[in-house]
Design goal:
7 helices, two-stranded antiparallel sheet, Rossmann fold, 8 strands
């Protein structure tokens, strides 16, 4: 049975078939465009509410670009603050890679799609460098391609609201 989030993603155009090169370097016969589905406020709200009840945290954080609207939606649903992780260190103004006070706080890291875990691991490292306590990542879709194992090696569990197999069915993951 396909879960509610997977169904909403499918209904809102989150899967496209063709030939794609993923951020991990892998090739795929489908692309999970979760960002495009999340521009629908109903989908974004559902994701935020689902994540808010999934784990215990003091602050939610998302990596720019895909994780930011998810962090904001989760912040609204949980009534807890959020942080933004820039993709790189800012060299002007106050500098830094993390926007928000995460030092000593239990931070829930959120992501739109995880494949090998590379992007979310960079976010994890940025948060930990700022003194955040991070033991859980919630992804909207897990492509089931190694992210859970890569995060486990860093003492972090991956929770998925949906899995690629629920969205694309029998097609290759």
């Amino acid at each position: 049975m396909v879960n509610r989030i997977a169904r909403m993603l499918k209904e809102n155009g989150a899967v496209e078939y063709g030939e794609f090169l993923l951020a991990s370097g892998a090739k795929s016969s489908y692309y999970l465009d979760v960002k495009s589905a999340l521009v629908n406020p109903s989908v974004l709200e559902a994701v935020g509410h689902e994540i808010a009840k999934t784990a215990s945290f003091d602050i939610v954080a998302g990596v720019a670009v895909g994780g930011v609207p998810i962090a904001v939606a989760t912040s609204f649903a949980s009534k807890k603050p959020y942080a933004i992780i820039r993709t790189g260190e800012k060299s002007h103004g106050k500098g830094g890679q993390v926007i928000g006070n995460v030092a000593g706080k239990q931070v829930l890291l959120v992501e739109d799609v995880t494949t090998s875990g590379g992007s979310v691991i960079k976010g994890l490292e940025a948060l930990r460098a700022e003194g955040a306590l991070v033991d859980t990542v919630v992804t909207v879709v897990d492509r089931e391609a190694g992210a859970a194992d890569a995060l486990a090696k860093r003492g972090v569990r991956l929770l998925a609201l949906s899995r690629a197999s629920e969205i694309v069915g029998d097609r290759d993951k």
